[in-house]
Amino acid sequence: MFRILKNPSFDFMRHRKVLLSVSAVLVVVSVVLLVTQGLNQGIEFAGGTQLRFKFADAPDIGQIRQTLVAAGLSGQQVTTIGDPADNEVVIRLPASGDTAADEAQSTQALEALYTQFGLRDDDHSADLNVVDSATLVQRLEGVAGSPAAAQELADAILAKRTDVAIFTSIDDLRDVPGLTAAALDVLQSDMTIGPFAQRSRSYVGPAVGKELINKTIAAIVGSLIGMLLYIWIRFQLQWGFAAVVALTHDTLITLGLFALFKQEMSLAVVAAFLTLVGYSVNDTVVVFDRIRENLRNRGSETVQETINRSINQTLSRTLITSGLTWIVVLAL
Predict the structure, then answer these.
(1) For the range 222-226, what are the long-range contacts, defined as Cβ-Cβ under 8 Å and sequence gap of 24 or more?
(2) CA distance 259 to 240
(3) Residue 46, C-beta contacts closer than 8 angstroms, at least 6 positions apart
(4) Which residues of 279-299 are buried (b: 16+ CB within 10 A; e: fewer)?
(5) ∠ CA 136-204-129 to the nearest 5 degrees?
(6) What is the pLDDT of residue 228?
(7) What does the alpha-carbon distance between residue 280 and residue 258 come to, in Å, rounded to a whole number?
(8) 260 pLDDT band (50/70/90 cuts)?
(9) Residue 301 DSSP code
(10) How confident is the model over 14-70, as pLDDT tens digits?
(11) How far is 46 from 270, CA to CA, in rounded Å?
């Protein structure tokens, strides 16, 4: 079997008191952070509207916040997303409990951004970064030859917009399939290129957010109970409790890091936490199995020496499994 470490003999148990103390401190700090700062809940849990925009130039986040506040949108959150060079901004608006009111908030935020960039109301429908299919077809019917041809050309333009995220100049349209010189002239004379494009809009009601929180808690608690029962049957009840304590330790410290750095708690993160639970259980079972085997033939060894030897024997396997996972995480 491939091994990263050849016959390791680290004395883990010798430092168990120090390591347990460090772990206890980290758990307490994590709990304090979770209680005092809480988690930065994503829109899936907190509810509300999320608007995602792509800007042609680097946006002024502070100015966007001021514009939204001036427009009467209190409680909003404005953050960048991804690589800063991508010029992408996410605006989160809190849920009001009324779908119509939330829709109005989204429109209000969009209008506020137009006002910030000095665009008139009649510029909206002519903006190639905002225009819808019906309006685009109407503009192209005169040069496309038929409504069907105009629709096909409009679909190609919108597909191109989806691909590039934002048009920065009319030259971005030149390679659109089926775009004739006459159609390009119409777009150049009748349409404008706005400073931003709305990439997506999503809405989650407070009731849905609460339901997702409950389901998330149920999934985590259910996994803990299932693990406890499995290890109880496979090994012993006290071993199951030890595994639950170790898993709770891993999860709480990770949650504490999320609270400390204000990372968003989304459904994808919940999936990552469930993956963490799975890896922790898997590694725990492997180590427990080796301990059980060594306890049967430990001879004059003490229990501490047997546990230490078992951890060293499974150390290469742990490093290989975790290392490969870490490589995938880095790639993502």
Answers:
(1) 223/274, 223/277, 223/278, 223/281, 224/248, 224/277
(2) 28
(3) 94, 95, 209
(4) bbbebbbebbebbeebeeebe
(5) 20
(6) 80
(7) 18
(8) very high
(9) -
(10) 888 999 999 999 999 999 999 998 888 777 777 778 888 889 888 888 888 888 888
(11) 14
